Amino acid sequence: MYILGISCYFHDASAALLKDGVIVAAAEEERFTRKKHDASFPMHAINYCLQSQNITVHDLTYIGFYEKPLLKFERLLSQHLHAFPWSFKTFLQSMPSWLHEKLNITRAIRKQLKYSGDILFIEHHLAHAASAFLLSPFKKAAIVTIDGVGSWTTTSYGIGNETKIHLMKVLPFPHSLGLLYSTLTAYLGFDVNDGEYKVMGLSAYGLSDKNKNIFYEKLKNAIDIKDDGSYHLDMSYFQYHYSDRMPSQKLCKLLGGPARNTDERITQRHKDIAAAAQMITEDVVMKILHHLHTSTECEAVVLGGGVALNSVCNGKILKKNLFKKIWIPPAPGDSGASIGAAAYIYHSILGHRRVSSLRHAFLGPGYSRKAIKNLLEKQRITFREFKNVRELVNHVATLIYKDNVVGWFQGRMEIGPRALGNRSILANPCNPHMKTLLNHRVKHRESFRPFAPAVCMEDASHYFHSDSPLPPSTDFMAFVYPAQKKWRGKIPAVLHVDGSGRLQSVRREYNPLFYNLIRSFENISGFPLLLNTSFNVSGEPLVCSPSDALQCFQRTKIDYLIIDRFLIGKKDNLYKRKHV
């Protein structure tokens, strides 16, 4: 039985294919169209999913959509009517897309795919809950989903047992922790739905002492947090429910001035506001988890929704001694909701037992060695082909040890916002200047942004104060952990200003080539870890195809590109730039 899940029309459109209860393919539309956070109907992602199994749309038993459009439209009408006349402008701006696309998803699916079968619509937070729980390794677990807003729900929590999901409590729009964080993202001069992780990174530079950070106390005026983690926003501080501007003048006054312009210098005030936003978020999440642990008596918890990408908060959860186990999918936001929609249909609606958990994120397109070689020869690229894998990893490890920046393109692409060793840029974690070099010369992004350490799973606890045993989701860069003090001076390129790192554990069974590369680097350097960042530049999606990788390689200061067994040097190909 094949079930196709679809997410689109809001942000991070995607498609996922379930075969007899196992996710066999999933990808974001942005990877194919090269439009970051592409929200359009995911035709390219759907075609990829079907082609990956050599099937057509006629082989599908069901298609699942991650929203109930009428319910979401009801909320939209309600919020605009409630805020009229201030909402009139944004109401007019939103109507064309609703009338032409969002209310006609059934017609779009049937027309675009020529599909005549059953289409099921799954409530947004149920799709998040399903992607978090039904693909987890747990038979029973507490469930928390937090995002900006789905239909009406912004936060939900409950329990999952086998194939059943029961959301015990939901918090309604406009009261939203995700939108509170996004409002502060906008205030700090970053793009909403893209810059929240920048705020998380910036927060490490601010005051983390609640008694000394004046903005923490100020922001508590805007949110009333109850003991069970439920919360209520004072909406006079916000405008997102009726305007295209998120912070109100009252919030700007509270925070000591107007919102930061994108090109304005970041000051200590901005850093302290980011730290306050992070602490408020952690307050809410921890209260929810404490209440949920008491009420469900579960030893495991799963997290879904965009806020589950807050790896700083995630890294503190198990240390609170509330839950013994935690699982977060590689794409907890809307791009993973297509997976949740398909899984909910198969398990929770049709009642099929769960047959496997999601062990890795490599669900996107892969490319044959022959196709890659043909592309390189067609583009007249000078390359070296390695016949032996051991020789390849030893050579690449040496290049990295000599402080070369390497584009690493292997196997199937990752689902989710983080590169996990198949579409990665790799560098020497021991070089104290590497962060600056990568941010300015390769990634073209803010200087405060950190990079992740990819470390062999068996060695993680030796270098980081990590949970023991490591949660499986550490493979997905879901947690930030502090480094052991004795190593902080030795691996500066993968540590943030506070000595922490967003750890990626690498297991031999799920990515043997990447694992062996790290081991080869250890043989040279003594350290079983590499600097790993996504293979893209600021403002662009992760590379998907070999052609994407070549274009990114030619436009940046990456020294070497490895695609499958082929090594391409920048110096050998500078004069061929026009051919790519």
Key features?
single chain, 580 residues, alpha/beta, Nucleotidyltransferase, domain 5, DHBP synthase, 3 domains, 9-stranded mixed sheet, 5-stranded mixed sheet, 35% helix, 19% strand
Walk me through the structure.
This protein is 35% helix and 19% strand. It is α/β, with parallel strands linked by helices and 580 residues long. The strands form four sheets. Strands 13-21-20-14-15-19-16-18-17 form a nine-stranded mixed β-sheet, with helices on both faces. Strands 3-2-1-4-5 form a five-stranded mixed β-sheet. The chain has a five-stranded mixed β-sheet with strand order 8-7-6-11-12. A hairpin with a 6-residue loop joins strand 1 and strand 2. The chain is globular. The model has no long low-confidence stretch (mean pLDDT 95).
What's the mean pLDDT score? 95
CATH homologous superfamily title of the largest domain: Carbamoyltransferase, C-terminal domain
pLDDT < 50 stretches: none
- Please tell me the total number of domains: 3
Helix share, percent: 25-40%
Largest sheet: 9 strands, mixed
Rg, nearest Å? 23 Å
Q: Helix/strand/pairing class, anyone? A: alpha/beta
The number of helical elements comes to 20
Strand order of the largest sheet: 13-21-20-14-15-19-16-18-17
Please tally the β strands and state the result: 21
What would you say the CATH architecture of the largest domain is? Alpha-Beta Complex
Query: Can you identify the CATH class of the largest domain?
Result: Alpha Beta
Q: What overall form do the CA principal axes indicate? A: globular
Distance N to C terminus: 41 Å
Using the coordinates shown, work out and report the CATH topology of the largest domain.
DHBP synthase
Strand content: 15-25%
Write down the oligomeric state. single chain
